[in-house]
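Researcher: If only I could read backbone structure tokens as easily as an amino acid sequence. Walk me, if you will, through where the backbone shape changes along the chain. I have put the entry right below:
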Amino acid sequence: MTHTTEPASGAGRQRKGGKGLHRRKFLGGMAGVGLGAVGAAGAAFSLLSGGNGNKAAAADATGTLTVPDLLEGTTTDGTTTYTLTAKTGTNEVISGVSSTTAGYNGSYLGPTMKWTTGDTVLLNITNTLGADTTVHFHGAHIPPEMDGGPQNSFADGETWSPTFEVKDEAKTLWYHPHALGTTAEQVVHGLAGMIIVEDDSDTSAALPSEYGVDDIPIILQCLAADSSGDIKYNVTGYLGSGLSYPVLCNGTNVDSTTLGFTATKTRTRFRVLNASPADIMTIQRGDGGTLTQIATDQGCLTEPTEVTTIRLVAGARAEFVLDLADAVTLQAVVTTGWIRGGSGTYDFLTVTPEATDTPDDLPSTLNTITRYDTTDFAARTITLGQSGQNMTINGSVGTTMDGMATIMTTLDAEEVWTISNGTQLEHSFHLHDVPFQLIEINGEEPTGVDLGWFDTYEVVGGGSIKIAMKFTDFTDDTYMYMLHCHLLQHEDEGMMAALMVMDG
């Protein structure tokens, strides 16, 4: 979710920075005690069976922001090919301790991909994890057989090669595993990366777009680990003793280090992804100033919007720009979103300007968003629930393809869904295939940035949201899209359903 509060009264680059004051506290909140451990669906993630206590040098001793590499594609006959390998490695999730991790083309996280609207892309993705995996392109509008859901699972040693036309407008997406029962385990160990979609619109031309210079990816994570560095991913792990809840920015622990970025352009664009398995991240300035938000999950807002906070539930993204004359420290306020987790305020990045340029004013209009008239939309209710040790959607436990509920719809169908939270737990509702508009949030009409396009949004305990969407372009009578909670442990515990779009 992206929520705002108005004021009340290239590649591989590193930037200089320093220390910052951290106010941090780990609460270990007990919301949701009684949930069962995640079932061992599918093969065990054999190479990630535990951390070790080997001490290592600080992951980023210089205190600089590491920008993920930009993955170069090769274009032949109109198709751009990207190559990814899912592999295991090590990373300092806890500073000074080496954890067993995984990444794409590296030991932790993955490179950023840039796609262009209208292009055809081919991805050759090789699995060397020692267990089945998938790669889901979160937020992308692509055919269901290329979506990377559970039906696209592929084994260790195999290569999966999805190909499709990029139909999305400019926005920030991401990629991560999505196999049954192992999503949380694989994502928390580092299998995640960002996707930037570019287009040729006037708005895109007017916004900062030089990767690593004035267009900066920020991947935030709050994890759980024990003192040996073993990363936890299910109820049993999270209820263990002696845990800490490290916060990472682009793979670097920021518990006691504020990373630095030197802005060589006056205006800098930040794309923020909350890749945590469960916890909520709220982004704000340390000086209490405003951020100029320009986009939500699914593209630009209608206009630049001044906000004091940007609240991101697990899986959500947002974009904002800063026009700086003086240094600004960005903070992440972590809120427990699951049974236990991190809590506190972290100074994760200080942006220091070293620029002499004077940028043009931001466009007063960024995007045209025509609000749906839902008068004649078909209505559904999707109920998020709990049954003993399992989580449910519409009463079904989605730990197997046969066991999960299936939502059937047709091409060009226009629908309004009420997502009702029948539990007192936090949920992060995510819909594959098409973006949605918010119609109601806990009975209230949306305002401000909540009038943008989304694919992931918060549903508080006992609350509800009403969303509207239109199913366009793709149908399939075999492959399904998914709808689920993006608190990854809830997904693995069964809070996932199938969405099948059929010909009319």
In short: The first helix runs from residue 183 to 188.
